Each structure stands twice: as C-alpha cells, then as structure tokens.
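Why predict the complex rather than its parts? Because the way molecules touch one another can change local conformation, and only a joint prediction can capture that. The input here totals 408 residues.
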Amino acid sequence: MNRNFDFVSDKRLEGQLDFIIEIDKLKNIARKSMVFDGSHFENDAEHSWTISVLAILLREYANFNVNIEKVIIMLLIHDIVEVYAGDTFLYSAKRSAAHIEEEKSAEKIFGFLEEDQKEYFLSLWKEFEERKTNEAKFATVFDRLEPLVQNYMTQGGTWKKYNVTYQMVIDKTSHIQEGSKEIWDFVKKLLQVCVERGYLAKEE
Amino acid sequence: MNRNFDFVSDKRLEGQLDFIIEIDKLKNIARKSMVFDGSHFENDAEHSWTISVLAILLREYANFNVNIEKVIIMLLIHDIVEVYAGDTFLYSAKRSAAHIEEEKSAEKIFGFLEEDQKEYFLSLWKEFEERKTNEAKFATVFDRLEPLVQNYMTQGGTWKKYNVTYQMVIDKTSHIQEGSKEIWDFVKKLLQVCVERGYLAKEE
Ligand SMILES: [Ca+2]
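Output of the joint prediction:
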C-alpha cells in the first residue's frame, strides 16, 4: 500500500488520510447519465453530493420519521465501493453479479480504516444495499430519483441510448414508494410526461 | 425563471426541483486546486462531497461535542452561493469584496424555495460564514484542510502557481485550531514537510 503520509506517526490518522486519498478516485468514475444541463457525464462524487442534498431538501416527504444524519451519511458513502468495482448500469444484466465484486471492494476500501470505523462504514453500506430499514428505504429514493430527472432534463438520455422502456423503468424504480409515496407520485407523473414527449418508449 | 417542471401543480415541490437543477451548475464551477491525483481541477460539487466525508471521518478530532448532522449539511450547501458568485481564491485580494456578491447570490438561489426552507438554508450558510458556533468552527476545518492536502499531493499545486508562501498559508488557515487542535497539529507538520520538499516557499 502506498504511504502518502509517511511523516504521520499516528497509524489511525494515517489510515484515515490514505482512505480519503483513495476514495477520491470516485471523481474519475463516470456514470451512465449526464448532469442536468447535459454538459458532461456525471461522476460518482458529483452524484453523491446531489443525492445527499436532495435527501435534505425533500426530507418532509418521507413516509415515516427518519434519522436524516444516517440517511445523508449512507448517501455520501454508498458508492465508495465503486473505487475498485466501477459503476454498473442499473439496467445491465451484470447488475446482480456486480454485488459480489462490490462486497470485496468494500472490504478493501474500508480496510484502510481501523476496525471500529471500518465496521461503522461497512454496516451503513450494507444497510443501504439491503433496503430494509426506514433510513435505507428513504436514502434509496434519491439514488433512483436523480437519474430519472437527468433523463427527463436531457430529453431521454440513457433511456434512448440503451433502449430502456417505460416498463423497465417502472420495474427498477417502483420501490421508491416504500420510502416516499409523494415522490413516487411525482415520478409516475414525470415518466408519463417523458412518454408523451417521446423521451421514453412505452410498450403497447 | 425557467419552469423545468411545468407539469407539477404543487408550487412548493416545483421550487424544490428547480432549486436542485439550478445548484447543479456547481459541477461546472472549477476551483483553483486539483483533485488529489492531479487529473483535473476540482469542481465545487466534488469539493463539497469530499469535505463532508472528511468531517464524518475525522469527527473524533473535534475540540468539543458537535452536532455532526448540522456540520455535514453546512458543508454540503456552503458553496451553493457560488452558482452565481463564482469561486474566489482564498488568497485573492478580492476575497473580502466577494462576500457582498455572495450575499446577493444566497438570496437569489435560496429564493427558489419557500420561506421556511429559504430561511433554514440561509441561516446555515450565514452560520458557516461567521464561524462563531462550534459546528461552524469544525466545518471550516475541512474547507481549509482539503486544499492544503491537495497542494501537498500535487507537489505544491496552487502555492507554486500563485507564489503563495508559508506565512500566507499559516495566516489563512491557523483558525483550524479553533475547531480541532489535533488536525491543526497535523497541518503544521504537513506544511513543514511541504517546505522541506520544496512545495512551499518559506520566508527567511
Ligand atoms: Ca469557495
């Protein structure tokens, strides 16, 4: 392992610093969708920032009380595993195989930290992935919502490029309603408008 | 004002959505320093993500108990005013004049939201800027820390480019100690190493 901070004698702090250097690679991991103005493909760090702000902004629409601190921390770190595993498109056939890679990646990246912090972040990441707690259900809303709005803003974006249909989108995103009925109502309306405007193909 | 979501009948929600589209412009606002691997100039969204993660990661070094939720939210939104005001270099002579522009910008950008949310974000932004509360003091640590580490990782980066000296850096960053004595100890060591390695010029 590269020692970026060889002058630091405290091993705990050195690990924390090396961790922040390592996760910076997310800034070079491009996602499939473009930022709202279509100027560039979004990277994982930009994505994590937007969905964290979204959760703060739209917290009033949660179906239940949530610990918003936990929601935000989950969203800020949920993509860190992609430092080694890369981004896998939601509609890709490889999406379920990707999970094994991500588990390995999580062990490696959070392994930069001492046991207590490693366990803390690993458990938050797993909680997010399992989508069983209220916080995980609410956090997932924003991870799904952002690309939908990006595709709307860019007149179809990845949907057109990869032949994604209305029913495929519904299948992959309908669990938004488990976190927020109000946001799911908005999404249904958004998708309808996308079909009407020709951004998204709907099966007969 | 552009109505991006003309099909949404709820004015509150429509304002929230327009707000998230507007602040996305931060992804096109380049800062002066490069990301840790030197691959590109960092943008404001990437910066906000990194310093939020840093605050979570290094919270144990705060000089006092902090409400970490508040710290993170401050860090996630602290640069939103730059959507209209742009980024001003910490060592620029224009730095104090920039504040008036930022006040106007804050009114405008948070004005997308209804009064309660506008006030909530405005007051958090002002609290951060004034650096009087424990949360603001601790949050500021990371806004200052990140570019120092970026310049270390890129062998001098903006310090060399803009002839910034050791004493100028100390003057602009010594308030880090108000938020965290341990992180300030690290910074002093880091700067010393930067001088020894020729990344940062020190006056005789
Ligand atoms: Ca700034």
